[in-house]
Specification:
Number of helices: 9
Number of domains: 4
Radius of gyration: 41 Å
Strand content: 35-45%
Largest sheet: 5 strands, antiparallel
Structural class: alpha+beta
Helix content: 10-25%
Distance between the termini: 87 Å
Oligomer: single chain
CATH topology of the largest domain: Immunoglobulin-like
CATH class of the largest domain: Mainly Beta
């Protein structure tokens, strides 16, 4: 038994000694304020090292250390070993400072680490307790929204990516998004991230960080001016160093839950240039190909054919209308069938959209389908393009003949022939008869007017009592007044029922106009959180507030999702009830 143990230890020592010795220097941050501290660790990956010599730290003051830690593990027949020497240092001055190499002797050979550059800036504000976990979390974790372009044209795609940066000083154990960003003024499409997002390496403010991509989206501005991308918020469970170590020298960490929010982003959407703008331009922005084709150019009467209008390429394919095909009246044309084969990626929308028209000829003959033009704006070249197709001809080989049109504007003159019977009889005498005079007295109208005052008196008494009871019903009057007010503000939205985009724009505008009229503030330019705070200050109950905010959010999301007419009517009723409840409380 002792023999096997000796063999095992020998193999273990041989495996460790077989590794190439390296001395690695790592710092907690590469950029800091002159009044801040950083941690530097020198790690050797091989046993047997002695006479470790730290750098001189000429430009730094050592405020802690050295502390040593040893780690050794055996996995799948491989042994890993590391021994670390850790210091806490603080810069003495501003500027670009260099931490010189440390050395260690191992097996008669001296191993050196690489020098590290540190950028020292002006002093920063530090809390009373630098070891406060909340402060450490704030310094080591950042939620960042990165936008591909801040000054796009209207209709030009913008890519936004939300990244969570985590330094090597802390560990993240759990994350959860608490509030998604709002994209007011944009057409937006989320880009799905397949599976668990991988951890990548990158830099944040010049320092080395790990990061994951949480959310991607493609945004297309739909109006000019400054458009706001609201922050995304999330809760993160972080393990931060507590400043203490256990019996074996390992740093004890403490879990802290902290909310992080990305910075608000402003996109300045530019209007498309007026110079060179074609008359048939309908808002297409990108780089496209245009084609019109006919499935058959020869057919019989009542036999159908298809005209395909297709636009392919890259750009805002879902945000403009295709040119309409105009056919002769002899070719019966049906409503087109829209087909889309597009995909949304970080680089934009690409693919093909097409309208398929069915035509059925009625008469024999040869007919021309006039050419069609399509115009678009290329944002990269800052130039308009117009593409025009050739005329199409369809030959109807069999069918009814089209009768020639008779010109009815010319009338042939003819002489009037008298036959002696053209004027047969002309009246020369008349008989005058006096009309019978009706007597008003004792007529039906006479008795109706006589009885009407007797009927009006009890009716007036009844109406007066009902109005009095109604006026005394304070709660009922408030409810009726609120319903009338809701109908007033929602009248425009009611007119747009069935038209998704127009309906939800009118609905959102009605809600903002109501608050503006009731509270005397401009709510269209403030966030939903601010609206919530204002309503809470007016003693509106939380249930009504949440319903109001929910309707506002639904108006934003529903514009870009498939919605039926029934769902629009339900949303209209919900908005009406919310305004009624708000008015009762305000």
């Amino acid at each position: 038994m002792k023999f096997y143990i000796i063999i095992f230890i020998s193999l273990l020592s041989f495996t460790v000694s077989a590794q190439e010795a390296t001395l690695l220097a790592e710092v907690s941050k590469n950029k800091l304020g002159v009044n801040q501290r950083l941690k530097i660790s020198f790690t050797i990956n091989k046993q047997g090292g002695d006479r470790f010599a730290p750098p001189a730290f000429k430009a730094f003051k050592v405020v802690g250390g050295p502390s040593q830690s040893v780690s050794q593990s055996w996995s799948n027949g491989k042994v890993s070993f590391s021994q670390a020497y850790t210091y806490i240092i603080q810069p003495k001055r501003k500027g670009e400072l260099v931490i010189e190499p440390a050395t260690i002797k191992i097996g008669g050979k001296t191993i050196s680490s690489k020098p590290i550059k540190i950028k020292v800036l002006d002093a920063v504000e530090i809390p009373k307790d630098p070891n406060d976990p909340n402060y450490i979390a704030q310094q080591n974790i950042h939620l960042v929204a990165q936008v591909s372009k801040s000054n796009p044209y209207v209709g030009e795609g913008v890519y936004v990516e939300y990244r969570l940066y985590v330094s090597n000083n802390v560990n993240v154990y759990d994350t959860g998004v608490t509030e998604l960003p709002q994209y007011n003024g944009f057409w937006n499409q989320e880009i799905k991230i397949k599976g668990q997002p991988p951890v990548k390496k990158g830099e944040y403010n010049g320092e080395d960080y790990r990061y994951i991509v949480l959310k991607k989206a493609l945004l297309i501005p739909t109006r000019t001016g400054k458009l706001t991308i609201d922050p995304m918020k999330m809760d993160v469970v972080i393990g931060v160093p507590s400043g203490r170590a256990d019996f074996f020298g390992n740093v004890i960490t403490r879990n802290v839950t902290k909310e992080f929010a990305s910075a608000k982003k402003i996109i300045n959407a530019k209007a498309l240039p007026l110079e060179g703008k074609p008359e048939d331009f309908t808002g297409a922005v990108g780089d496209f190909k245009f084609d019109v084709s006919l499935s058959k150019d020869a057919l019989k009467a009542n036999e159908s054919a298809q005209i395909k209008v297709a636009i392919s390429g890259k750009g805002n394919l879902k945000l403009f209308e295709l040119p309409e095909v105009v056919t002769p009246v002899e070719l019966e044309k049906y409503q087109p069938e829209r087909k889309e084969k597009v995909r949304v990626t970080a680089s934009g929308i690409s693919g093909v959209i097409s309208d398929l028209y069915t035509i059925v000829p009625q008469y024999k003959g040869k007919y021309k389908i006039p050419n069609i033009s399509f115009s678009y704006f290329n944002a990269k070249e800052k130039k308009y393009y117009t593409k025009t197709t050739e005329d199409l001809f369809v030959d109807i080989l069999e069918g009814k003949e089209l009768k020639p049109v008779v010109n009815t504007t010319e009338v042939e003159k003819q002489e009037v022939v008298s036959t002696g019977k053209n004027f047969r009889y002309i009246q020369t005498k008349s008989n005058f008869v006096t009309a019978k005079e009706d007597d008003f007295y004792k007529s039906i109208l006479f008795y109706l007017l006589l009885i009407m005052p007797l009927i009006a008196i009890p009716v007036g008494v009844f109406v007066g009592r009902r109005n009095k009871a109604r006026n005394n019903d304070v709660l009922g009057n408030k409810l009726r007044k609120a319903e009338k007010l809701a109908k007033k503000y929602l009248s425009e939205a009611q007119k747009q029922l069935g038209k998704k985009e127009a309906f939800y724009e009118a609905l959102e505008r009605a809600l903002h106009n109501y608050l503006k009229a009731k509270l005397g503030i401009e709510t269209a330019d403030i966030s939903k959180e601010k609206i919530t705070d204002i309503l809470e200050s007016k003693n509106v109950d939380s249930t009504t507030i949440s319903k109001f905010i929910e309707v506002l959010k639904s108006s934003d999301f529903a514009r870009f999702t498939p919605i039926t007419g029934t769902e629009m009517e339900a949303e209209f009723e919900r908005a009406k009830q919310v305004i009624v409840q708000l008015d009762k409380q305000l």
